[in-house]
Design brief:
heterodimer, A: Phosphatase 2c, domain 1, 6-stranded antiparallel beta sheet, B: 7-stranded mixed beta sheet, 7 strands, 20% strand, Protein phosphatase 2C domain-containing protein (chain A), PPM-type-like_dom_sf (chain A), PPM-type_phosphatase-like_dom (chain A), vWFA_dom_sf (chain B)
């Protein structure tokens, strides 16, 4: 039935992409871009019997304990109950279990000499812990939005929580509001600050729309209000010093006229072009671990503004993603191929599962597709 | 945006005193520990991906023994003791080593602030004043200005270690110089490891994760000069 349906109604080019298990992608999606990278690490451990590679005959599965016939007791009688009826004393072979941490195979490339996936740990007494992964893939008014935030290998290994955060909202006006934040590693509760900030941006946007639906929202004003609310909530609700939740962040407002964005720190935005990606902001050239500006408590002159004409695809990201995109031709080529079409949650998450030498930070990307107009991808 | 691959680098420089007072067990302990640093690069992929190490020695003058490189692939020479102790020569040589090492990286390479681990067992002996050379090394207007972490042991002067350090200064507690050197090298390896891996939020870590346990070291407040 499914096959007949698909033959009758061929998938549109912009059908949302899901992970390769989804037959829509395999059958109808655009050809996969070849990953121009060397794969120099073994793939993640998978159960070879549960998921054998195509064309490969796995080793015979070790014998499992014999299944009891229907109606027979599941466990043998005790041998000492009737010596004449004693069962074979040889122990039944136990089913083999997969070794090592198990994950799903991904399609994202390995670039350079990258460490294998890490099991990670959780440090004791970290109460303010967001989940290690957040995913979204949905329509939002006149936009499609897919977003993923993945904990970095460094945080996994050191037992720290993911410190990136994102959120988005479509207003009654049809505008799309996107917030992205990245907690400062040197601040003990920065994950709280990042999460409160993205939440506060949407609250500020909703209030602004309610107050005057026709007014042009100012992303810098939304950012300032969100920063102020974050500091207040941290103090009043969590009884923490706002200096302990430092973060960098950005606010974007998208409508039919394009995208206006305000940021403090190195969260960035990229538009997809025929040649790949263009960065909306000017990238910092200083050392990566020297923070130029952060929130809360930012100064007005530290807020950077940028305006981007309507683009088919815009990606907002924290530096863990932005640095890789800037410095990896292989990644840009691969993502440009992938992100031509809207994604569903697991597919967008899979695109950020690339492994890259020296890339250990949390990664967050919010990708927005326009679903109408001539500039649609 | 570059079309090539530029991988993030955490530059680490070791600045080791090889004056005559290091003769015997102390220099042997340093030589014995260098392969341990190399093994860390080889055995811990998250460290090996990102940390690049340079080694410089100083006595009357300075010498770049290993330029900034992937230590996993480097040949490790045996360090030999030399003459007196000239901190000014050490700082001048270190600035040159950093400049040379950082500019040898492909243009546009994302880097963390360089870190210098400075270890000495004695006092500055040369006539020239060393503070000017230190200021040149740590001048914040220089784009490669490093974080300097000092480890003093044996006859090292506490105040000098405090002045040389940008933020973190330590004096080894144990009275045996060989044990002191061993603990310092362990602390350096631990700090490279912890910083390289925790750096994962490297991007926002304004500084270092130092692994200098208080049972072996006395932390000292840095003194600005």
């Amino acid at each position: 039935m499914l096959e007949r349906f698909r033959r009758s109604f061929p998938a549109r080019r912009d059908d949302p992409r899901e992970t390769p298990d989804d037959p829509r992608v395999t059958a109808d999606g655009p050809p996969e871009a070849a990953a121009p990278v060397t794969v120099d690490e073994p793939p993640p451990a998978v159960d070879p019997w549960a998921n054998p590679p195509a064309g490969h005959d796995p080793a015979p599965r070790p014998p499992a304990a014999p299944e009891p016939a229907s109606g027979e007791p599941a466990t043998p009688e005790r041998a000492d109950s009737d010596p004449a009826q004693a069962v074979d004393p040889a122990p039944a072979a136990e089913p083999a279990l997969p070794t090592g941490p198990r994950d799903l195979p991904g399609t994202a490339p390995t670039i350079g000499r990258a460490a294998p996936p890490q099991l990670g740990q959780v440090n004791p007494a970290i109460a303010l812990r967001p989940p290690a992964v957040a995913l979204d893939g949905t329509s939002a008014g006149g936009f499609r939005v897919a977003a993923a935030s993945l904990i970095g290998a460094g945080h996994l290994v050191s037992g720290q929580p993911r410190q990136d955060s994102y959120n988005f909202m479509v207003g009654e006006s049809g505008r799309l509001y996107v917030a992205v934040a990245d907690g400062l590693g040197s601040k003990p509760a920065s994950q709280l600050g990042a999460n409160l900030f993205t939440e506060s941006v949407l609250i500020a946007a909703a209030q602004a729309e309610k107050a005057d639906p026709q007014a042009e929202p100012d992303p810098a004003e939304l950012l300032a209000q969100a920063s102020t609310r974050t500091a207040r909530v941290v103090e009043e609700a969590y009884r923490l010093d706002p200096r302990t939740v430092g973060f960098v962040g950005a606010v974007a407002v998208l409508d039919e006229r394009g995208c206006r964005m305000a940021r403090v720190g190195d969260v960035s935005a990229f538009t997809m072009t025929a040649d790949g990606f263009d960065e909306a902001f000017t990238a910092d050239e200083g050392p990566l671990n020297v923070v130029s500006a952060s929130m809360p408590g930012e100064k007005p002159e530290q807020v950077e503004l940028v305006e981007v004409a309507p683009a088919g695809v815009v990606a907002f990201g924290t530096d863990g993603f932005a640095n890789d995109l800037r410095t990896s031709g292989a990644l840009r080529e691969w993502l440009a191929g992938q992100w031509r079409v809207p994604h569903l949650p697991f597919a967008i998450g899979d695109t950020l599962r690339y492994r890259r030498q020296g890339s250990h930070d949390d990664r967050t990307a919010v990708v927005v597709w326009r679903t109408g107009g001539d500039d649609a991808p | 945006m570059t079309s090539s691959e530029l991988f993030t680098v955490f530059p680490v420089f070791l600045c080791v005193d090889v004056s005559a007072s290091m003769a015997g067990g102390s220099i042997e302990a340093v030589n014995k520990a260098l392969p341990d640093i190399q093994n860390e690069m080889r055995s811990n992929p998250m460290v090996g991906e990102i940390a690049r190490v340079g080694l410089m020695t100083f006595s009357d003058d300075s010498r770049v023994v290993i330029p900034l490189c992937d230590l996993a692939d480097a040949h490790l020479p045996e360090l030999m003791v030399e003459g007196g102790t000239n901190f000014a020569a050490a700082f001048r040589g270190m600035r040159q080593a950093i400049e040379s090492g950082m500019t040898s990286l492909p243009k546009g390479t994302p880097v963390y602030r360089p870190v210098v681990f400075f270890m000495s067992d004695g006092a500055h002996q040369a006539r020239e004043d060393w503070t000017d050379a230190l200021h040149q090394l740590t001048d914040k207007s220089w784009k490669f200005a490093p974080e300097v972490v000092t480890f003093g042991f044996a006859d090292a002067q506490q105040e000098s270690m405090q002045k040389i350090a940008t933020r973190f200064a330590f004096i080894a507690k144990n009275s045996d110089p060989v044990t002191q050197v061993r603990e310092i090298m362990n602390a350096i390896i631990g700090s490279i490891r912890t910083t390289s891996t925790s750096l994962a939020d490297p991007a926002k870590q304004e500084g270092l994760y130092l692994d200098a346990p208080t049972e072996h070291f006395t932390p000292l407040p840095a003194i600005t000069i």
